[in-house]
Amino acid sequence: MSQKVLLHAKEIDIILNRLACQLIENHKDFKETCLIGLQPRGIQLTHRLAEILKLETEIDFLEVGKLDLTFYRDDFRRSDKTLTANTTEIDFIVENKNVVFIDDVLYTGRSIRAALTAIQSYGRPKSIELLTLIDRRFSRHLPIQATYKGRKVDAIDDEKVKVHWKEIHDEDAVYLVKN
Ligand SMILES: O=c1cc[nH]c(=O)[nH]1
């Protein structure tokens, strides 16, 4: 196995700040907007962006939730393992809100398709956008694109993009891993 660093901590920091600024530009005071992290890997990115939005701006109101996709995935019946769902926590109304889905890596688009189905159980948002730290270009199986992209990466199918967060892995870094 070999791995190469795609992003160091400093670059991730710059990207997170840029993504937060883009969100502010489009969503102003966030009164009509909520951030929803996709389980499991979008959660840390969601926390980090929410932290930047709260600490470094005047925003004092931010609705942040988590959405689990396990049983909405189109391949969940194919799994021979027992699936364990993560939690969904959406303790606010999504009806007529601008929802921003947040995930770390956009790859085939199938997770986002599942998220679009899952969110329907909570109401009918006014709009849904997608923010991703890494956009794996040319890998999509579905016509899905991110609204906000941290970094575009060209990776082939036997490569994997791994995102490390300091709260979990003791470092902020993004790696391209080849088996
Ligand atoms: O490369 C990939 C693809 C999907 N999810 C990841 O975390 N990495």
TrEMBL record:
Pfam families: Pribosyltran. Residues 4-156 form the Phosphoribosyltransferase domain. Gene3D superfamilies: 3.40.50.2020. Keywords: Glycosyltransferase, Transferase. It comes from the Bacteria. InterPro entries: PRTase-like (IPR029057), PRTase_dom (IPR000836), PyrR_bifunctional (IPR050137). The keyword Glycosyltransferase applies. GO terms for molecular function: glycosyltransferase activity. This is Pyrimidine operon attenuation protein / uracil phosphoribosyltransferase. It comes from Psychroflexus halocasei.
